[in-house]
Specification:
The chain is an all-alpha fold. The protein is built from nine helices and no strands.
Length: 186
C-alpha cells in the first residue's frame, strides 16, 4: 500500500507540474494542440494533480481509517475515469501513440487502488516504530498540516488554564465539570 501511494504521488506531481508549467510543450508531444482557453483548463488539471499527489504522499503513512478509505475510493474513481478518457482520446485520434502511456498509468492506479477499495488487499498501518516507517517525517508533517491552527491554540489555552488554576489552589476549576443530564430541564 505504501509503495502504491508513493508512486502515485510522484507520477501525479510530475504530470501536475508539467501541466502547470509547460502545458503546450507537454501536450504537443502527445500530438495535442491547445488554444488559450484549453491551456487554462490543462493548468487547472495540473493543480488538481499536484493536490492529489500531496494527498497520496501524506496518506502513505497513516493508519487505516474511514478517511483513508475515502481517499482510496476517490483515487480509484479518478484513475478509472482518467483511464477511460485517455483510452477514448487515443482511439478517437485525439492523441497520438504516446497517449497509451496515460492509459497504462491510469489503468495501473485504477487496478491498484481499486483492489484496496474493494477490500481484496489489506489496508494496514505501515509499521509500529515511526522512525523506521517514516524516515522523512511525513506522519508528523501530515498531523501538523491537518490539525487546525485554532484547534492547536485551544489546546494550548486549555492546558495553560488548567496549570494556572492548579497553581492558585483552585483545583476544582481545573477539572472538567460533569453534568447530570437528568438535572437539566428543557
Amino acid at each position: 500500500m505504501k509503495a502504491l501511494f508513493t508512486i502515485h504521488a510522484f507520477v501525479s506531481w510530475a504530470f501536475g507540474l508539467a501541466f502547470l508549467l509547460v502545458p503546450i510543450a507537454l501536450l504537443k508531444a502527445y500530438g495535442i494542440t491547445l488554444n488559450p482557453g484549453s491551456t487554462i483548463v490543462v493548468r487547472l488539471l495540473g493543480g488538481a494533480f499536484v493536490g492529489l499527489g500531496l494527498m497520496a504522499w501524506l496518506s502513505s503513512h497513516v493508519a487505516p481509517a474511514e478517511g483513508l478509505r475515502a481517499i482510496i475510493l476517490g483515487i480509484t474513481v479518478t484513475a478509472a475515469l482518467g483511464c477511460l478518457v485517455s483510452l477514448h482520446g487515443v482511439m478517437s485520434g485525439g492523441s497520438n501513440a504516446l497517449g497509451w502511456v496515460s492509459v497504462v498509468l491510469y489503468g495501473f492506479f485504477a487496478v491498484g487502488f481499486g483492489t484496496l477499495a474493494t477490500g481484496k488487499a489489506p489496508v494496514t498501518a505501515t509499521a509500529d516504530r515511526p522512525d523506521e516507517a517514516d524516515p522523512l517525517g511525513r506522519r508528523r508533517f501530515a498531523s501538523r498540516l491537518l490539525t487546525s491552527p485554532l484547534r492547536r491554540r485551544d489546546a494550548r489555552e486549555h492546558h495553560a488554564n488548567r496549570g494556572t488554576a492548579r497553581g492558585l489552589g483552585l483545583e476544582s476549576l481545573a477539572e472538567p465539570v460533569q453534568h447530570d443530564r437528568d438535572s437539566f430541564e428543557g
